[in-house]
Task: inverse folding
């Protein structure tokens, strides 16, 4: 069986983030296999094929910051998408204590 590449590992983790929760770039990196891949997560999400239908909008910074210009959806698209799932956004931030996905590595 062919081993998954880094982007595929990242996409697998992002695909598991449940509705109404968020994960940080660093958290995704760690769950994908290397906690130092946080920037790689950003690169991977920038080029994710639309056909994968990944919930990329659920990935935020470690401080809970959302992107002002998320993908090609214009200003505040990420915030709107998260709010539609019940995630509260205040001053372009998500309360990570309340909304962070608690997936653990075993």
Result:
């Amino acid at each position: 069986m062919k081993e998954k590449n880094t982007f595929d590992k990242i996409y697998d983790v992002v695909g598991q983030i449940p509705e109404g929760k968020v994960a940080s770039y660093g958290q995704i990196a760690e769950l994908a296999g290397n906690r130092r891949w946080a920037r790689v997560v950003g690169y991977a999400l920038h080029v994710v094929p639309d056909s994968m239908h990944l919930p990329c909008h659920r990935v935020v910074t470690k401080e809970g910051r959302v992107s002002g210009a998320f993908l090609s959806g214009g200003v505040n698209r990420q915030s709107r998408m998260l709010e539609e799932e019940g995630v509260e956004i205040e001053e372009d931030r998500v309360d990570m204590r309340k909304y962070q996905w608690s997936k653990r590595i075993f």
In short: The longest strand covers residues 23-24. Residues 6-14 form the longest helix (9 residues).
